[in-house]
Amino acid sequence: MANGGRILLVVHQPGNAKVLGQAVTEIGVTAVTAASESALEHCLAEPESPRAALVDVSGFGAQVWSLCSLLHDHDIPFVVMSPGRDQEASNRSVEYGASTVLQKPIAKDALLNLLKSLSSR
Questions:
Q1: Which of the pair, 118 or 5, is modelled with greater confidence?
Q2: 26 φ/ψ angles, rounded to the nearest 5 degrees
């Protein structure tokens, strides 16, 4: 995915969005952040669709599942990051179309390699 492309970061916490955005720029892509359903709908309506998305369930509550449904409906492959002991979030993530679920904390190299793989599909 080097040389362009966009990864959508569906992240509620501004600090997490900043850290993740800095990390994905290392693989040569633009990070676009959506922290609400309306922001996500706006991103999905843009002419250049994101190649993949990273969803951090922290801070969204039950709203996160409607965000995952939107990504799934737009055929955007996505990875869900969830707190390490939240088995229900892991199970629901797969139900809503996540390609995989990563338990926090996540090794940066593993995350970037996964996003490269997803975006090249």
A1: 5
A2: -65, -20
